[in-house]
Amino acid sequence: MARETATPGYFTSWSFMEQELRSTFLLANVAYRHRSSFLRCKQGKRSLQDYVMELHNLEAAMAAAPLSEDA
């Protein structure tokens, strides 16, 4: 995109800004850690409400850092 280099310091699209922010601030393996935590999650001795709350939190974390289907 020619405009991206013509106007330094500005983002020309939402997707470009999102890509730049992710590459700067998101750890490379954070999506894998969230997914692993989700798959390991068990109710154990805690209440069903606490268990479901953790599942919802992990699901939200995975949505914020999605894995590609190829991974």
UniProtKB/TrEMBL annotation:
Q: Name one Pfam family in it.
A: Retrotrans_gag
* Superkingdom in the source lineage: Eukaryota
Name-wise, this protein is: Retrotransposon gag domain-containing protein
- Which InterPro entries does the protein's record reference? Retrotrans_gag_dom
Give the Retrotransposon gag domain ranges: 8-69
Species of origin: Phytophthora fragariae
